[in-house]
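forwarding from the other thread:

> can someone predict this with zinc ion?

sure thing
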Amino acid sequence: MRKIDKKTARKIAMERIKILLQLADQRMRENEEDLAKRYVNLALLISKKYNVRIPRDMKYRICKKCKLFIVPGKNARVRLKKGKVVITCLNCGYKKRYKYK
Ligand SMILES: [Zn+2]
């Protein structure tokens, strides 16, 4: 097997995470929640293994509690409250809050 340096490995890992989360998004739209969950889990595993952060715009779309891929208006409720965004996962009820600019 060809040896690759750490930097390249992390770059590849990031690409894989992005692809997996895109696939999760697609599956959610096709009502394939179980498959979507598998993709999310894989993405999280890769992120841990290679110490790569999930991109910020993707991170808020994964429920911290049940790891479900969140599609606003489908399995999550999005509310604006005092300058904050509150995303409620309709699967487990977990609420995620973050500031928005
Ligand atoms: Zn959840």
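The domain at 6-99 is CATH 1.20.5.420 (Single alpha-helices involved in coiled-coils or other helix-helix interfaces). thats all i got for now
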